[in-house]
Each structure stands twice: as C-alpha cells, then as structure tokens.
Amino acid sequence: xxxxxxxxxxxxxxxxxxxxxLQQVEKVAPLLDKALWPxxxxxxxxxxxxxxxxxxxxxxxxxxxxxxxxxxxxxxRGPGKGGVRYHQDVTLxxxxxxxxxxxxxxxVVNVPFGGAKGGIRVDPRQLSLAELxxxxxxxxxxxxMMIGPDKDIPAPxxxxxxxxxxxxxxxxxxxxGRTATGVVTGKPLSLGGSLGRPDATGRGVFVTAREAxxxxxxxxxxxxVAVQGFGNVGEASAxxxxxxxxxxxxxxxxxxxLYNPNGIDLVALKQYFAEHRTLLGAPDCELxxxxxxxxxxxxxxxxxxxxxxxxxxxAACINARxxxxxxxxxxxxxxxxxxxxxxxxxxxxxxxxAGGVTVSYFEWVQDFSSFFWSEEEINQRLERxxxxxxxxxxxxxxxxxxxxxxxxxxxxxxRVLEARxxxxxxx
Length: 427
Ligand code: NAD
Prior knowledge:
Blueprint: H1 17-28, E1 48-57, E2 63-74, E3 80-87, H2 92-108, E4 115-121, H3 129-142, E5 152-156, H4 162-176, H5 197-216, E6 224-228, H6 232-243, E7 247-252, E8 257-259, H7 266-276, E9 286-287, E10 300-303, E11 322-324, H8 333-341, E12 345-347, H9 349-352, H10 355-369, H11 375-400, H12 404-423
Parallel strand pairs: 3-4, 3-5, 6-7, 6-10, 10-11, 11-12
Antiparallel strand pairs: 1-2, 2-4, 7-8, 8-9
Helix pairs in contact: 1-2, 1-12, 2-12, 3-4, 5-6, 5-10, 5-11, 10-11, 11-12
Bound molecules: nicotinamide-adenine-dinucleotide.
C-alpha cells in the first residue's frame, strides 16, 4: 500500500476535513481484504475536481464573485451523488471530504451511486432571494459538464433546499433543451420530488438511534436528547425522537443554545423560529452558553450542523450515552479516542445520516420510471434499509472488535474497491 508521488492536496501536513477523511481511510486500509489493497489509493484521490468562478449581479448593480466547487470523489459503483452546500466557510478540503464520505455512505446503504459533493463559499443570509436564484443558476451552468441524471445528481445540503433544487433542475433543463427532472433530488413534489424526502435524513437518524438503543438496553420513551442544528436534519430528528416519547432537553443553532430539562416544546419552537428566524428569545427555555450545550446530561446527542463540532476541547465533558451523527464529520479523530475511553457509543455519519441519500435514490428511481410511491411505502423501505445496514455494521464491529465507524468503513470501502477491481483499469 505505498503512495508514490502524493498530489499536494493530500499532503499529510494538510489540516481540515479532507485530512480527517484520509485518517479514517488510513485506519481502515489494513483491515480490508488483501486483494483490495492495490486499489486503496483510489479512495485517497478524488476522481475529478472542478473549481468555478460564480459571478453574479447584485441587486444594487455591483458584480460579486463567489468560488464554487463540484467534486466527483468516486464513481466506481454508479453516478456521483451528493449535496450542494452554501456557507461562508466552504473550502476545497471540506467539499472533497464531504464527497469522500458520500462514496462510503452510498456503499454502506448499498445504493448504486458513487460519491460527489458541491458547494459555494457564500453567506446566503447576505443575499436576497433574487440574488440567490442568480447565484444558483450561474453555478449550475458552470458545473453543467459534471452533472446529469446518469452522471452526477446533486441534492440539498446546508443552506440549500427544494427551491434551490428547482432552480438547478430548471437551469440544467434549459441548457439541455429538455426537461430533466432526474438531474437533482430533494425537489419540490410538483417537479418530481419524492414524498418523505424532507424528513428522510432525520428519520434515518432516529431509526439508527432506535437500533442502537435496543443494543444498549436504552428506551427512547423518556430518553433525554440534545440536538445541535435546527435545520432540515436537526429539526426532523428532534421531532422523530419527540414523537416516540423522548424529551428534547437542549437545542442549539447558529443563533442560540436553549435548555429545558423538562423537555422543549418543539411545535412551539418551530413556530417561534418561523416567525423570528432565530431561536434567541424562545419562550420556556433557559439560554445557556454554546460550550455548555456539550455538557448537557442526556442519553442521545445529535450533532446536525457542521464538521469538527465534537473535538479535543469538548469531548471530555460530553455527558451522553450515544452520539448519533446527523451532520457529516462532526467528530474529530482526537475526540473519538476520548469518547471511546468514556464508553460513549458513536453511530457514524456514513450510517446515521444516510436516510437522505436513500430516499434521494428512491426519488431518482421514481423520476426515471415516472411512477410515484406512497409515503408509507417510502418510509417502510427506508426503515428497512437503515435497520439492516445498522445490523450488518453492528455485527461486524462485534466480530472484529471495531468501532461502528471503522466497521462501516470496512463495509463501504470493500464494496467500492470490489467494484473498482472488477472494472479494472482503462486502458
Ligand atoms: P440546514 O441548513 O437545514 O441547517 C443547519 C443548521 O445548523 C441550522 O439550524 C443552523 O443554524 C445550524 N448551525 C450552523 N452553524 C452552526 C454553528 N456554528 N453552531 C450551531 N449550529 C449551527 O442544514 P442541514 O441540511 O440540516 O444539514 C446539517 C448537517 O447534516 C450538515 O452536516 C449536512 O452535510 C448533513 N446532512 C444533511 C442531509 C440533508 O438531507 N439535508 C443529509 C445528510 C447529511
């Protein structure tokens, strides 16, 4: 497993999310079947990476430039698949890592996709709706050569939603001269979106938490849950837990950290957020510091915001029995060591948040066949896939004395590299 002539972007001195992804691959490589070792290097390199300039005219007449990316990490098992993130801290390293995790995740739940991801370094809160539409359309045009229903299918991620997907689908369709609904997933229902997609990631987080609870003899009923992020993933996860009788004792978003040991009323909180666009000032909650969020006593902790939130500075104070990673890459390798010593179970991102891409796969299949399924059917299929993936990972982890993350990587990497080796090298 030698790595001759490493490209600069995978230098071992690099820091950032890509470096974390690489550390995870290094850890798992010796555990893979020896026949796959010659192919491991493919996981350390994105297949292709595109950096684009996205110029737009602002409402005040000025022109602003933003940097955008689309990465195909690996397409051995099928077309690329992964979200598009709009955030002021987006970097090439971050988007490469997110694409790498998509490769592993899609293989873990065995959907026939490779890994991809995109993003723009922009604070979307500073843009009007019209500016956001122009940004999305220009970005879509710039990455047009990378995407397509059988090539690479974007989806929502942080700060992007069904409306952004509708603009992407329309722009791609205009450029192609035909309506191509299957080019993105997470679309509005009226454009070939799927029932169950908005809640799918949160539902998957909940299903894997429920499966973990069974293994640890915990009950969801009455369990205390702390959730970081009150967006697509965080809000839906919290709602699923609450519907099953859990108590949401803390919620943190970019604006505030709320605490109520008796349980936060999520319906009221969602309504407050819809009216005020901030959690600050929400009734019946104590405002605590951002750091104290991590020390809240709870059975389940769900990070559902950004990477590296659980790190060497806060891991020792975590007072949870299980961490269910709704976000991608929320736990650093240093934190993971501390958590293992403290017997905190981590259900890794590549499993826990795979519900979104699983229902995205259902959406893509429905678009191709122009035949749409009921929500009940979608939720049932999702639950089955998530529960089976959890079971397979748990079993491997027990058999080989691995963490759930390493077991998930063994399963995911093996599937990717088997496909890679059977395909062989061209020419
Ligand atoms: P979102 O934009 O809908 O919500 C993000 C939430 O995080 C917001 O509540 C925001 O206030 C909060 N947040 C942002 N910065 C924060 C900070 N510094 N501290 C605390 N909270 C902060 O995004 P989302 O789609 O829910 O994605 C959240 C995470 O889940 C990301 O890591 C994403 O990659 C991952 N994920 C999303 C999906 C999906 O289907 N949307 C699927 C899989 C994984």
